[in-house]
């Protein structure tokens, strides 16, 4: 089932999410719905707070990035088919020189800005079978993971912008929270009770 994506301004997007256990209510159905919702919106990642659930779960599928012609064949192959579920994740290390990349977010449609992040991360998490992992990622995969991880920490990519950039996009953010935006996927707006 395609779920509405929570828009900028909803308090759930600013909450630090809670861990879940393997007996979380309708876990398999939730996972299926989240993937369907992400693909319907042409996203490469989706975190549970973006569908209104303050739980530490997000998913990533970087396959769409693999079609970028500016990447090497090796980078394209790495991104193609990288599909993971991260539950109760904790980034334990970030390293390297920060680099900028133009980011967007399904909860903040039509706004894209350069965000600086470190290129290498180590993350501990459990997968959809609640099997534990500790892995290191770099490049675009690390960036997508960091972006989704921020969601379960109650952080949005706009929080990482300079105060000048924030002032410049303030009106657009207000319009998003009021539902004054056209998108090709279902959204839930904090200032409107109706769903689109």
Structure commentary:
The chain is α+β, with helices and mostly antiparallel strands and 196 residues long. The chain has a single domain (5-188), classed as Peptide Deformylase, CATH 3.90.45. The chain is built from 4 helices and 9 strands; from the N terminus they run βαββαβββββααβ. It has helices at 27-40, 73-79, 139-152, 163-177, and strands at 5-6, 45-47, 57-61, 83-95, 99-105, 108-117, 120-126, 132-138, 187-188. It has a 5-stranded antiparallel sheet with strand order 2-3-4-7-8, sandwiched between helices. Strands 1-9 form a two-stranded parallel sheet. Strands 5-6 form a two-stranded antiparallel sheet. β5 (99-105) and β6 form a beta hairpin.
The end-to-end span amounts to 15 Å
Enumerate the spans where pLDDT stays under 50 for 5 or more consecutive residues: none
**Order of SSEs, N→C?**
EHEEHEEEEEHHE
CATH architecture: Alpha-Beta Complex
């Amino acid at each position: 089932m395609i779920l509405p994506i929570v828009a900028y301004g909803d308090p759930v997007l600013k909450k630090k999410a809670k861990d879940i256990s393997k007996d979380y209510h309708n876990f398999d159905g939730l996972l299926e719905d989240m993937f369907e919702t992400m693909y319907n919106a042409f996203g490469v990642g989706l975190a549970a707070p973006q569908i209104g659930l303050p739980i530490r779960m997000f998913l990533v599928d970087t396959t769409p990035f693999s079609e970028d012609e500016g990447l090497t064949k090796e980078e394209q192959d790495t991104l193609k088919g990288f599909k993971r579920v991260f539950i109760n994740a904790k980034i334990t290390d970030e390293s390297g020189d920060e680099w900028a990349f133009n980011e967007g977010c399904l909860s903040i449609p039509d706004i894209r800005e350069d965000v600086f992040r470190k290129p290498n991360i180590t993350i501990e998490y459990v997968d959809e079978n609640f099997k534990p992992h500790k892995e290191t990622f770099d490049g675009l995969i690390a960036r997508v993971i960091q972006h989704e991880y921020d969601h379960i920490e109650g952080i949005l990519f706009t929080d990482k912008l300079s105060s000048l950039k924030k002032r410049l996009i303030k009106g657009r953010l207000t319009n998003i929270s009021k539902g004054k935006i056209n998108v090709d996927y279902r959204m839930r707006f904090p200032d409107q009770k109706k769903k689109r």
